[in-house]
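User: Sequence in, structure out. Go.
Assistant: Echoing your sequence, followed by the structure tokens.
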Amino acid sequence: MTHVTGAYFSPTGGTKRALEAVCSLFEGEAELLELTGPSKKEKQLAPEDLLVLALPVYAGQRPAVPGLLDGLKGENTPCVILATYGNRHYDDALAQMKREMGERGFRCVGAAAVITPHIFAPTLGVGRPDEEDMEALKSFVQGVEEKLSQPGWTEAEVPGNPSPAPKPAVPVKKDRDWDICLGCGFCAQVCPTGAMDPKTLLWADDKCISCMSCVAHCPVGALGYNSSALAARLTELYSARRAVETFL
């Protein structure tokens, strides 16, 4: 039985839930690895292992977190890549992830673009992955397992530019309620890019990628953001349901 490891970056929880859903379709219990924050882990995987990597899509690319994937090392290890996104599009994310994992010793046996709730437009992707998505993902996992049973399998082809030019983060104003803030600094600890000063607890806009990990992890809810204008635009343009896309 292949040992499955699920690695993820999930600032607000949606990508982790999608990863757990996919990993549950493989035989046996998967080991989960968080790629950022205080619980960050590293992993060396063997040729007989299987890695399932899940990253959210930001502006059509994988998150611009320095060193995000550097803790993963493979040895011609099969890898399933999952790009999660809020119903707009995944653009170059899958191609970018495939290239970067190839550079780290992994071979892409399959890939999927999975819809999850959009952090800035809550009605987009709400409740997903849902039952319809899970049926598509179940067939995908069966395809992955069948492919792995065949000697000499070839890597999955995915759409997109594997080396896209970097895009700036979407600017979203964040606020802190200093009346209830504990000053514990946990928000700074979970920031994946070091964008928050651990002493002043203020954000550096040039480092912030608007992942909202700080907001999601505040123990007292002292942090918030206003994305109403962005949400209105996204909802108007991208409300039509997109299906899960898979590649083998």
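User: And one key feature?
Assistant: Residues 77 and 241 are 34 Å apart (CA to CA).
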